[in-house]
Amino acid sequence: MNIPADSITVRQVTPGDVRRINELIRMLAEHQRAADQAVATADDLHAALFASHPSLFGHVADCGGYVVGFTLWFLSYSTWVGKHGIHLEDICVMPEMRGRGVGRALLAELASICVQRGYGRLDWSVLRGNESAIGFCQSVGAEAMPEWNAYRLSGRSLADLAGK
Question: If you average pLDDT over residues 116-141, what whole number do you get?
Answer without folding.
Answer: 83
